[in-house]
Amino acid sequence: MLLCFDIGNTDIYGGVFDGDRVRYEFRKSNQARPSVDEFGVFLLHWLQARQIDPKSIDAVGIASVVPDSLPSVAGACREYLQVKPLVLEAGVRTGLKIQVHDPREVGADRIANAIAAVQMFPDRDLLVVDMGTATTVCAITRDKAYLGGVIIAGMRLCMNALGKGTAKLPLVDIIRPKQALGKTTIDNIQSGLYFGHIGTLKEIFERLRQEAFDGREPLIVGTGGFSRLFREENLFDEIIPGLVLQGLRLAVEMNPAPHPHHS
Predict the structure, then answer these.
(1) Are 54 and 44 in contact, with CB atoms under 8 Å apart?
(2) Contact present, 235 and 198 (Cβ < 8 Å)
(3) Which of 124, 109, 97, 115 minimizes the C-alpha distance to 218?
């Protein structure tokens, strides 16, 4: 079986694959960066609670945008599962032509999303929108050229900035408001977060359509924790919350280890 981790600023998102399907997934807070042993013990407990024999994990894929957390997660895989993980980074086969100034700068989660999207939607121009701590937009052409994209503050970051940077504005739940016109302070903030994000993304989509695809209509794929909030908005053609894990699975398949169990 295959275990994949997306190490993000807010959470470590993980999943176990049986074949090409995610059988179980988890989110674990990454606010307090875990030690090797903390993460190893968590992993063993999590696997055993789902009746998964840790010895049945024969491959691990990791995408990380948090350098501090990567050694702990990778070390836990080596020490507790006896598996050397594939870390998605420069030099790993991806099947993409990465056409940016410095490919090492591109977040591993964005590469994983792109790997999965081009496999799921072959021969399509793609915009992949990942709505997590940051909201990222990636442009990938129908011939698998990764052209770059856009990063904006995600919805929770925007909400926290309002709460911390003002004297009287509260932190709020991030929801889909029924209307833009807010009648309370909380309504006002929720409306601004939600409809502001929609307006920003529509403007970005239109500019990227011209700049990346010569005016052709790309398929727009939403992923990440907040993407589901926008299901009713016709913002995305497809919403695939676990896209990053699928991309990691494909990366592991493209980069087979010489033998599965070694550290």
Answers:
(1) yes
(2) yes
(3) 124
* Rounded Cα distance, 228 and 176, in Å: 10
Examine the residue annotation and report whether 6 is marked as an active-site residue of this protein.
no
CATH class of 2-87: alpha beta
Indicate which residue of 20, 53, 58, 109 is catalytic: 109
DSSP 170-187: PP------S-S--SSHHH
CB 207 within 8 A of CB 150: no
113 membership: H or E segment, kind and range: helix 108-120
In whole angstroms, what is the distance from residue 5 CA to residue 14 CA? Answer: 4
The tens-digit pLDDT sequence of the chain (263 residues) is 999 999 999 899 999 999 999 999 999 999 888 999 999 999 999 999 999 999 999 999 999 999 999 999 999 999 999 999 999 998 899 999 999 999 999 999 999 999 999 999 999 999 999 999 899 999 999 999 999 999 999 999 999 999 999 999 999 999 999 999 999 999 999 999 999 999 999 999 999 999 999 999 999 999 999 999 999 999 999 999 999 999 999 999 999 876 555 44
Range(s) of the chain covered by CATH 3.30.420.40 = 2-87, 97-246
Question: Which of 215, 241, 247, 253 minimizes the C-alpha distance to 144?
Answer: 247
CATH architecture for segment(s) 97-246: 2-Layer Sandwich (3.30)
